[in-house]
Protein 1
Amino acid sequence: SSGCEKPFVLKCIVDPETVDLLAQPPRLLITKHDKRGRKRPSGYVADYLWLGREQFALVEAKQLAKLESLSESLSDWVYSTSDGWRLQPGEEVAGRYGMRFKVFCPEDLSPTYLANLQIIARLPSEDLLAQRSRLIECVRNHLENRPQTVLQLCERFDGLTAAVIYQAIAKNLLYGLIEDQHFDASFVVYRSLEEVVCQQQFLRRTAPQVEGKYGSMHARLLCASASELKLTIAAKARYERRRKDGIGKDATDYRDEARI
């Protein structure tokens, strides 16, 4: 289905470890429990056979509602917070052939990343970085003081495109919040992984959402320098301290709430 198998296929397209993907591989014999708990031999066809660089895997692609329904009626489908969704007969038959077994659930991915997959999968697949090492180094130097958006960088550097930026991110030459921010002209690019981690933690802690939408300060904070983040953290601490002490809100408090 487009809501489940399409995201899995797109994810495989952008995964550098994927060599090939085969839908509906040949039927295998498994032993599974029926609805009454009795073990019975049965034919089994996985949704996909995933061929990777170092391993193969049988894959079941199911939406969360379907997985929950299966786990209620069939004991072979189980879920744990540590291992996610599992199908024991599938794992057993995959192991017999030296393969792994995976369950793909699109709800495990953020809606933003699912949207990004549809864009990223359409970017050029050829290596765009081979002749642009000097360009990427210039971009990294330019990002030393503060992160910038895709649009700002492409306007600043000739020969730089969104596709080049994404490939640099995929190879850890540049960094960005691919799972949390839409990959468009306003997507923010960072120089280091440490910046991304700090920004991600900071924004989740200090940028509250109202009815699912961020305030006008959110975009500015994404591109904030280290010193600006420190000032914001200090202001946030003062605001929380005033609330804890029971001090009434003034005009500045209400203005900051609306903006952030």
Protein 2
Amino acid sequence: VAKNPTSVVFLVLSVCVYLAISFIFINRTSFLVDEGDHSKTISEIATSQVNEETFSRNAQLPGYYFLMSIFYYLGINSLSGLRFVQLIISLLCIFVFMWSLKTRGQKEKYIKTWQLLTFPYLSIFFVLVYTDVLSLLLVLFCFALMRRKHFFLSAITGLLSILVRQNNVICLLYFCLYHFLENYGFNIKFQKYIFYIKDVFWFVLPLGFTAIFLYINKGAALANSYASPLSFHVENIFFFLFSVTLLFLPQVIFNLKKI
């Protein structure tokens, strides 16, 4: 794909058309799975009807619900309206993803953008009232800012991502490790550690917040924390390996001749 304005416009238009078709198709349905619970939580916050079930109904921290309640309060209070807001968040997520690939070639950027759009575990959530896409948006923005050496802004964005989904702390830990390996490598020198600590110092904020939350809440899930204890399950590793195998099987087959 040539690097020219026409190809960029085509990519943007094709992304918009894809999401618009998805929105029209999904918008014919009523609440899907947990959309009812999410919408109820948003409604209670926006209308000042917060009760003991408002924040215990869902496992996530309420960052997403507070954001969506602003639009609900402004009059976008129907299911289709909330889904449209979710559509805008999805567009921002995709553009941030493209921005995070800024240093890569144009062809690879376009291919990976469409891989994100058609990703089986994510594509359905682009137009549903769920926390997943906002969570991904903030995580991608955090990573992009870190790669551009804006460490304070990256850490703040990481904190915001945790306020949407607690498990994003795993991504932040990975980003810190990635930054070390990318910039300092495996050649261990004391001076490198000093520079590294200065780089990731502000990540104490999101990591410390998560540690305090886990201690006070006695678990990772906001709802029924006793049912989601901190533990290690080997079956999760096998499920992950199985999922990754299916996901990347076409790419593996395509590259067999290069092995």
Protein 3
Amino acid sequence: KKKLEKHSKNIEKVDFSKLSGRKERGYEGFIYAQPIRDYENSDIHKFEILTRFNVDFVKDPGVIERIFQELEKTGEIIDHDLDVMRRAHMALSYVRTLNGSDNLPEMAVNISPKTLSSPKFAAALLSMKEDDPFIMDKMIVEITERYDFDNEDIAFENCQLIKSTGLRIAQDDYPLGRCAAIHSKRIAPLVDIIKMEVGRIPSLKATARMAFDPERCLKVEERIETIAHEEGAIRRGAGQGQGFFYGRPMPIKSSLEALASA
């Protein structure tokens, strides 16, 4: 009971953080997540963990992009990503304590190439494994598309650690941005999941430039907003879909409560 109360308190507490020297209004101790539908099982049992900032995704969809650009520029993205990853792990641990291990959701956590290039990542991952090793296989490191790796040697070592710890690796938002993970000859073979803009299946020409084979990966189509998008994704062989058609980003506590009542 004490452990449950501790987790609940940590997930729900409200505090404030600084973004480039100023308080970011509306920041909460929640993390924001968006549901993903598994087409084979026709259920929603997985979430992409987006950010810890409380923003209006509907009125200003570009606000997250601007926040992340600033975080990348200042280097604060590393601490942001690791904080969000710890919170996701904490939320999963809370659910396991509450309901047992049989019906845990999966959580895909956005991690920047800059964060993967930092020695801090390994320390954070090993700390989470020590705290609760029984939920690691429910977490996915989703490498964002925006930038290249600052240090590919460290990033490769961290990706090896990710795999040995039981997590999977996803490349986010193909074909936008750099998509550094799938263009790295060493890291690409470790990628398990490719997330694509709706309808943007890799062409043979694009595949030839990549360092990995998309056919061996689980395909997830993003920005599914209509039934036609969903039908097209299934027809193209996507295993999962994500978008406003299934739900808008919400605090992870609300997401888990909705999942529990489904």
